[in-house]
Amino acid sequence: MHDRDQSFPQDCPGGHPGMSTEAGIDVQRQLESLVQDFRTSDPPMPVIVLHAEDPADDDRVVELVDELREGQQRHGTRLAVAPTEPQPGDHDPTARAARLLRDLGDSRKWGGRSAAYRPYSFPRLGLVRALQEATDDPEMREHWPTAPAGTPDGNAQREQAQTHLLRILARQRWRPRRPSRRHPQMLLNDVQQFLPMGVLGAFTALLTRPEWYIAVLAGIGLMILLAALNHVPGRAPLFLWLRRESRWFLTTTFLQSAARRRSTSVRLLRPVRSWRAIAARAYDVAEAMREGGPFPLQLYVLALFEDLRDNHRRGSWDLRGFKRTRPPVLFLRRIGRENGGIELIRAVSDVRSRRSELDPLLIVAGVAADDAALLDRGADGDPPAVRPRPPSQPSRLPQRLRHWYDEWAGNLRADQSPSRTNALPWVLRIPLPPDDLVQLRQADWRCVRARHRPPLARVVWSVHSLLLVLALAATAGVVHSRELHRTYCSAGLLTADRDTERRPAPGGGTECVGIAVGGVRFGAHLRGGADGEVERLRELEELVLAENAEVLRDHPRAHVTVVYAGPLSSSSADPSLVKGAEELAGVYLAQRVVNENYTVKLRVLLANGGADMGHQRVTADAIAEYADRDPTVVGVVGFGRDLQSSPDATRRLHEAGLPIVSGTNSATYLPEEFSNWFSLAAPDEHQAKALGLIARQLRTREKAPHALVLARDIKESQDRYTSEQAAYGGEMLKREGFRLLPSQSYRVANGKPELRLHAESICRGERVPSVIYFAGRVEDIGPLMTQLSTEPGCANREISILTGDDLSKARFSGTGGRDGVAPRITLYHAALAELKEAASGTAFYEDAAKHLPWLEDGEATYDAADFASGQTALAHDATRALYWAASLGDVRQSRAATWVNLRSVRLDGMATGTIDFTDAPLYGERHGHSIVLKRVRRTAEGVSEAEVLCSRPAGSTEPLDVGECAIG
């Protein structure tokens, strides 16, 4: 014993006392050698049959088997013990052998919950047992066919028998009968197949970008529905053909011999055909089981092997084959004819020889010395042939065990040959000499175990690592989802509509900017607004979207898409949405008129540049990116505010091949630098020249008049309009002979202009200007009036203020608005839309009364509050001009053709007159813009009244003169 192999540690885990005999120590060592090989490869697992050389030692062999079982159990081996005690009932050895396997489909027989990793599952063995129970059911006795096969009566009887067999199987849920306490486990096993469906349902819900809990509820709800349908009493389970045992049942070649009457080919994506295949295979197998013989026993053995192979498959999703590093062991204490053990061993060897596939099951059995011969000869029980012992065979048991195993493994291929009928090739019979079965002193007992280390797969791919990964993934998902919700206007748990983004809004908070092509509504992101403007904007959005839906539904190949880009959000400092709401009304009105009267339909997408178009570069990028995906986009209407980012936004759309038709952007430089820029607004330089007619008349009232340019400071803002106005206004005052005082710039803080110090400087200086050119925004004019009206140097002095077209957005008292001028101050401003003169020749107001739902009878007039500013009219005319170029000849035009066609646009009868781009040079400003000069002053009644001094409708190129614009 001292020269034993010391490659294994001689420890006894769990307090196991060890093996009490030399034979036990050596056999345990051989088992652990197989275990160690199993960790790295798939060695063939024999059926180890132990027997004594002397029949008097048979009981000691049984004790040795018990010690081996206890040792393997202490080592963490998955093992089962087949009951080999004689059972009352059938005397057929094959039936007894099948009875030994019936209970092995219970995972508790193999260690249960206390076993490492997870309990075994035996779905294939359970299916075979369910078929056996349904076949043996008393209800089936009277339904088996009695007529010969192939006859009409025989075929009809077989159809009825199959129907009744399927009814019994459905009642059993296609599983073996079990006590009621096992039903919750059965429910859990069935629900597992619905988990992928639930995940798929949740993922599908996520694609619609709902809240995360809606997606979770959708997945859980789908699983509950499927589970409820799966357990309808008397019905076969849902997705029966998707179960792994069903796939094996239909594809194993072992059962082809049973399928004698019809084809059982199956396609998993064809449930009806699959169900018919399963039904046919089940009945054929049931008939074969009813006939008896070796088939039922071999089917049990095959199902057990296939389940164990699957439980140790290394390529599984949970890598269970890498985690279960010890092979399962089946212990048979004493096999013989009376308990079916001999037939079981024969069936194991026959199935392994027929299938020629390795399975992990290691069987250790004890046999009486007198019965050992049955394992070497056929079932006739003839005396065994004497096994020759080669001269080189080792004499000691440890060496003999290893030699026998090597010899057995080497001869395995030849021993499976059909001609060697007297051999059981998978049986390794080990005779134990009497000396090795003598019990040792307890101090000499040994427990041998293969070196053990936790497998890497248990650490890397386990429940704990999975929970960690899920926790990290959930955390990352939540962080990612929150980032999506912070970045984009419409976001779900994992996805977002990337065409719209959240950007900082003036005065705090965020606003939604970009192009709305999905379910985004810019009106839904507005916090406030004045005079019901938010409700008006939301209503217009829904009207445009409804019109778009009709266009896409009825005219998918006969429409063009125009993008309106305007200020569709407001800031907390200035909640007014006048410009965006009024422009959108004009765009929608043009869409309705076009779609009612033309073959090529108009689809309008809305793009928000933010409050005062502060994020128009982001919007331009979003429009260009969307236009790359949608070839029906032919151009853009809007971008009506001149900012520092205007050149970049125009250049980005130029690169995308998109022309821009703006209704209100009066920048002089844009048409000179970009060939894709078209505008209906009179340029700032033209406006300043027209206001020079007023300044010329004001200069004659004093001998040495002084003038001042008061401009908004643009150092901390994007505004470029005011700097352009200041530059052209200063040049105009110089040209008209005014003595210019140093220009002043006022700051805007928190949305409010800081004008008090400037008003004091203007009014309390030695030279008070009689004319102020105000290069600011409409929201700043009210505070300026208030400051000038209270300063002593200005309150009692006639002062004239000249300013550009931004004041056309003001609503003075005479037009039902909220703005006004101070006493003794006269305001002169330019406007972009001459509406009165064009009103008699346009259908614009009739169309507005027809299609704008908030207008009542008589409210659609050129001087009504909704139209007086000209924003609606200009947006309408710009949209009609772009559409005309995109549908030339009543044929849908491409984006490039639309760009070219714009230079041939001439439209009469528009809201502002005639829109004529025919004289527009490539890089220069055209003529023929609509322009209006207005005067606003305080009446004796204390209200502000606006009046038109002179004007030109769109299309007229005749310049204004002093006589027309006389101020009296």
UniProtKB/TrEMBL annotation:
Q: InterPro entries, from UniProt?
A: Peripla_BP_I
- Transmembrane stretches in the record are 212-232, 459-479
Annotated region described as Disordered, given as residue ranges:
1-22, 71-93, 377-397
* Keywords recorded for this protein, A-Z: Membrane, Transmembrane, Transmembrane helix
- Top-level lineage group: Bacteria
The entry's protein name is ABC transporter substrate-binding protein
Q: Which organism is it from?
A: Streptomyces prasinosporus
